[in-house]
Automatic annotation (TrEMBL):
All residue ranges annotated as the Glycosyltransferase 2-like domain in the record: 10-156
Protein name according to UniProt: Glycosyltransferase involved in cell wall biosynthesis
Keywords: Transferase
GO molecular function, a single term: transferase activity
Domain of life the protein comes from: Bacteria
CDD domains: Glyco_tranf_GTA_type
InterPro entries given in the database record: Glyco_trans_2-like (IPR001173), Glycosyltransf_2 (IPR050834), Nucleotide-diphossugar_trans (IPR029044)
A Pfam cross-reference name: Glycos_transf_2
Keyword Manganese: no
């Protein structure tokens, strides 16, 4: 057994009916022996996951297993886990993805250099067809403040995913992910930024998000409320921090207006949901200064203008472009 000191990091993983894939998760968790605490939450699985977690934890003295009696989704499961954290920092990981083997070492280096409130690292995204791309983070190592962090999130330079970030427990607050399930990752990240003064950016790639059939990102039925809740949380935080109004408008453009129109078409949602998404997008777009937004992103501003111009014909314009995009991506692989 290694005599190296444990890192003051808790790893939180929530499970719900993972089936046999729980063994894959436990295998990579076993490689993170440097973490001072492991918190595994079974969110009322019906496949024996809680029993398997308890059996595994018996061989790992720093592991805590929480078995919830009722399923309420990942937001509540993570909130329950946060209550059990006994370390200075927390890392939230999904059970069906691939954390980098050296992720803890990367986070350890970041927190030893100035004790930041948050660490924003980099992450990859692997789509269901095997294609990979960068999903989060920036290629630089620097410490920034609250205002700059919020600005970068609103500009889309840094995304609101949990798994590429390390949180100081004190900046999470109580119930950081709400009680329901509307963009709880993004809401939790924005809230943590508001409570932080030092945010360290790391070039290290710590995670690969793996898209799978049935994942939220592939659900055909868009939840427009999720987008609205997250938008409102971020806009309120930005205004309290004095973030430039053009940056706020640009965020509302790409995060909400374009998304609620684009996502239903991309996912093949029902016609009524596609129409509702276009309607919501047009309402939002009419409130924005698209000319000013173009200074931050010409493509996004042009996309917004197309939605306003073609309205309900938007799917007819978008689908050929998506087809060409997908063909080119397959050709390049």
């Amino acid at each position: 057994m290694s005599n190296d000191p444990l890192l003051p990091i808790s790893i939180v993983v929530c499970f719900h009916n993972p089936g046999a894939s729980v063994e894959h998760t436990l295998a990579w968790l076993g490689g993170f022996a440097a973490a001072a605490q492991l918190i595994l939450v079974d969110d009322a699985s019906g496949d024996g996951t809680a029993e398997r977690l308890r059996s595994w934890s018996a061989q790992h003295r720093h592991c805590t297993v929480i078995a919830l009696a009722e399923n309420h989704g990942p937001a509540r499961a993570r909130n329950v886990a946060v209550e059990q954290v006994r370390t200075e920092y927390v890392w939230f990981v999904d059970d069906d993805d691939e954390p980098a083997p050296d992720a803890l070492a990367a986070f350890g280096r970041a927190i030893q250099d100035g004790t930041p409130d948050l660490v924003f690292a980099r992450a990859r995204f692997r789509s269901a067809d095997g294609a990979e791309r960068w999903a989060d983070g920036v290629d630089e190592t620097v410490v920034i403040g609250r205002h700059e962090a919020l600005t970068r999130v609103l500009r889309g330079d840094i995304q609101g995913f949990l798994w590429s970030k390390l949180f100081r427990r004190s900046v999470l607050g109580d119930e950081p992910f709400g009680r329901e399930h509307p963009q709880e990752d993004f809401v939790g990240v924005v809230g943590a930024i508001e409570r932080s003064t030092r945010i360290a950016l790391s070039q290290a790639s710590v995670y690969t998000y793996v898209e799978r059939p049935g994942s939220l990102s592939r659900d055909r039925r868009p939840d427009f409320r999720r987008y609205a809740v997250a938008r409102d949380v971020a806009v309120s935080a930005a205004r309290r921090a004095g973030v430039d109004g053009v940056v706020v408008d640009y965020f509302r453009l790409w995060f909400y207006a374009i998304a609620v129109a684009f996502v239903p078409v991309r996912r093949g949602a029902a016609a009524a949901e596609v129409s509702e998404g276009i309607r919501l997008a047009k309402v939002e777009l009419r409130r924005l200064d698209l000319s000013a937004c173009a200074e931050l992103g010409r493509g996004a501003a042009a996309h917004g203008r197309i939605i306003l111009l073609v309205g309900r014909l938007y799917p007819l314009v978008l689908k050929p472009a998506l087809l060409l995009h997908d063909l080119l991506r397959r050709f390049r692989r």
